[in-house]
Structure formats: C-alpha cells, structure tokens
Design goal:
alpha/beta, Rossmann fold, 3 domains
Length: 438
C-alpha cells in the first residue's frame, strides 16, 4: 500500500464513524470503501511482477580491496503498455560485510525505457563473497498499491583481490617522469650501480671515475661508461599472516596493507630485472613461490596470495625463517612484512634476522596502527582513557625498542603508516640497489 492508498483509507475513517451514527449512510460509505479496496487490488495486479521484470547486475569480475567499485543495475519491463511508466524502490542485496554508498534507490522505467541504477561497493576484506537478490517495490499505475518482487541479478559470486591501482599509477607516473608525486625517487641516476650498460660520449658533468680511458684512446674522443644497478638479484617477499597481522590499521588490516605494498614492490623489482619470490608464514610455512623474473611471475604471486588470510595463531619466526634460510642459498633481499607489538616475538625476530644477515640482506617492514598512535597521544579525560593511553604508550615503546635493536644489528627497517609504507619501501629498495648491497 502506498501513501496515497493509505491516505484514502484514512479519509474513510470519519465517514465510517459518521455512517455508524446515521444508518442510511452506511451502504453508501461501504460501497465507496469497497471501490477503494478493489481499485487497490487492481492497481497491485497491474504493477509488474516477477514474470515481467528483468534485472541485470553489472560489475568487474574482480572487486578491488579498499576501493570504490562501480556496480550497475539494469532494470527492464516486458508486456506492458508502451506509454506506461512505472516507478519503484530498489535495493540490491550486496554482501553484508561490504560498504555501499547507497542502499535504496528510486527507479523509473517502462517498455523500451530501461532504468540504470549505479552505486559503489568498498570491500574491507579479501576473499569470495555472494550477492543476494534485487528486491523491488513497484508502484501500480494508479499509485494506490505496490508489488514487492525479488529477482536474481546474474552471477552471485564475486572475488575480492588486493587493489592494484597503485601499480597502474606507478606506471603512469613513471612514463611521465613524475614518480616524485608518488613519493618515489628516480629509479636510475647516471653512473650509479655496478653493472655495465653502455659507453657513450662524455658530457661536462660526468664524474672523473666514469671516464673510460681505453675507449677515449681508441676513439680520440672523451668517452664515459654508464653503469646501472645489478639485475637478476633475488628479492624474497616474506609475509607474516599470524595473529598480530589481523589487527586493523585504518580501514584494512595490517596484512592487507602489507600485501598491497609487497605487490607494488614485486612489480617494480620485476620491472628492473630482478627475480622475485614469495614466502608466506605464520606458525609454519603457508605458501612459497621460487624467485623468478618476468611478467608471469606477478600472476603466480597473486594466485599464491589470494587464499592468505590472518590467523589466530602466533607467528613462529624460528620455524619459518630457519626454513627460508635453508631453501634460499643465494644472497637475496629478504623483505619481511610483520608486526612488532609482542616483545617476546620481537626477541625471536631479532635473533633470526641476525642469523639471516650472515648471508642475506633482511629488511623488516611494519605498518603502524593509527588508532594506537592516537591513543598514545590523546590527552586523557577520565581514568579509562588514562589507562588506555598508558597501555598504548607501553606497546609503542616496546615496538620502538625492537626496531632500534634491529637497526643496531645492521638490519634494514621500514616503519610507516598505511599511506606512506609503499613509497618508503620502494625508496629503500632503490637505495639498496644503487649502493650495490643486493
């Protein structure tokens, strides 16, 4: 029943009360009431239902984590008077744990005049999700009643993968030479590195060490050598998905932020000619991909990371990193994405990274929790907030102690919030390449 239908029925209430006192009016009032009810039933019948409505849901096959993904609903009606236009309230039963910018929308459609409703979904977790039905309340042509219908919108299952838009943004800025806008320094500088690239004519600003005296003597012109960072070096992405990595850092978990930063680093490393591998662990080894070069390696990394979710188990660095050092004999950059809130685990990480450093170059990457930073810096207003601030300050102090110890032991570290962890990690990787440490 629409508001118009409800208003007509409410308008009959005083007439029915009047007819109860004046009996001769009763048949007339009942007749009018009957006409209204019959009109509402006819209006309900004229509103299109399941057999005449068609709904199609359109979206990308894979939704991107943490991004607003566009969803479109196409609504059509069949077997109706061409000039007749229907209005409806439409609700798409999207996955309950995904945020939508609009829940209920108004649509107007008719024969040959489909309605297209658009909204966005912002997933907060990876994995597979299922859409439900598209529920419609179509108003009849008289506007007295509506008919509710639930239809399927097409494929119900959808996959949510890490957001790769940062890679596309990186490529676009790299082509324009504007990587500084992303917070990344230049990929190459003249004369940096240890691997020979070419011999060219010298220019006035070339350093003396780049002059090739043999080529100069042979050609009679001052010649210089261009060096580039060494390529085909192994880069192992070691991703911890234990209990602490399931903690939120903003809208996403620390694990999801780590995976996003790891994939961007993998893309850049593969682009520069390095060999990228993957090692996922918690209390044991979950997945591993041997380091290889080439574009196909990125697809293998994505497939291996797709089922990785935070666990409720404490990570075991002793078990995982000992296994990694045994399987990876050649010197490699070991990029370890983890968390450092637990002092006992921090001691284990310090010991194992010191052991890795004998042959490899470990780089520990951690994502800061903005809620923890805010709690430690907030001025308390009562006893509970004082206690919360004390606990947060203690956790941050333990974290800082572990990071300082790692640095004293010669272990590279990157500790940043979710917005800056990717550019800071890329800059550290490029600095290590330029200095020929890997």
């Amino acid at each position: 029943m629409t508001r118009r239908g409800a208003a007509l029925l409410l308008a009959m209430v005083p007439l029915v009360a009047l007819a109860a006192r004046f009996r001769p009016l009763l048949p007339v009032v009942l007749a009018v009431l009957g006409i209204i009810v019959v009109a509402m039933v006819i209006d309900w019948r004229l509103a299109p239902g399941r057999t005449r409505l068609r709904v199609r849901r359109e979206h990308e096959h894979v939704l991107r984590l943490g991004r607003a993904n566009a969803i479109a609903l196409h609504i059509e009606v069949e077997r109706a008077t061409p000039s007749r236009v229907f209005s409806a309230l439409v609700r798409d039963e999207h996955p309950a744990d995904i945020d939508a910018d609009v829940e209920v929308q108004h649509a107007t459609f008719g024969v040959g005049r489909p309605a297209i409703l658009r909204y966005t979904l912002t997933p907060r977790a990876r994995g597979e999700r299922a859409f439900g039905r598209v529920v419609m309340r179509v108003t009849g042509p008289l506007g007295l009643a509506w008919r509710q219908t639930a239809l399927t919108g097409g494929d119900a299952m959808v996959r949510i993968d890490p957001d790769l838009s940062a890679i596309a943004e990186y490529e676009a800025l790299a082509r324009r030479g504007q990587l500084v806008e992303l917070g990344v320094r230049a990929l190459r500088r003249r004369g940096e590195g240890t691997e020979f690239e070419r011999i060219r004519d010298a220019v006035p600003d070339d350093p003396l060490r780049s002059i090739n005296w043999k080529a100069t003597a042979r050609t009679g012109r001052l010649m210089a050598v261009d060096l580039i960072p060494e390529r085909a070096q192994p880069v192992i992405l070691c991703i911890d998905h234990g209990r602490l990595m399931g903690v939120g850092a903003g809208a996403l978990t620390k694990l999801d932020h780590a995976i996003g930063a790891a994939l961007l680093l993998a893309h850049v490393a593969l682009r520069t000619g390095d060999r990228v591998g993957l090692f996922v662990f918690s209390d044991g080894v979950t997945a591993s991909v041997p380091p290889r070069p080439g574009r196909m390696q990125m697809r293998l990394l994505l497939e291996a990371l797709r089922p990785v979710m935070p666990t409720r188990i404490e990570s075991d660095y002793d078990e995982a990193l000992v296994h990694l050092s045994r399987s990876q004999r050649r010197r490699a950059l070991m990029v370890i994405f983890t968390d450092l809130l637990d002092p006992d685990q921090g001691a284990s990480l310090i010991a194992q990274t010191a052991r890795l450093r004998r042959r490899h170059l470990p780089l520990v990457v951690t994502v800061r929790d903005p809620a923890l930073d805010a709690a430690a810096g907030r001025r308390p207003a009562d006893v509970s907030e004082t206690y919360a601030r004390s606990v947060a300050a203690g956790l941050l102090a333990d974290r800082a102690d572990v990071i300082r110890t790692l640095r004293r032991n010669g272990v590279e570290t990157v500790d940043a919030d979710a917005r800056s962890v990717s550019p800071r990690l890329l800059n550290r990787y490029l600095d290590l390449k330029r200095s020929a440490r890997i």
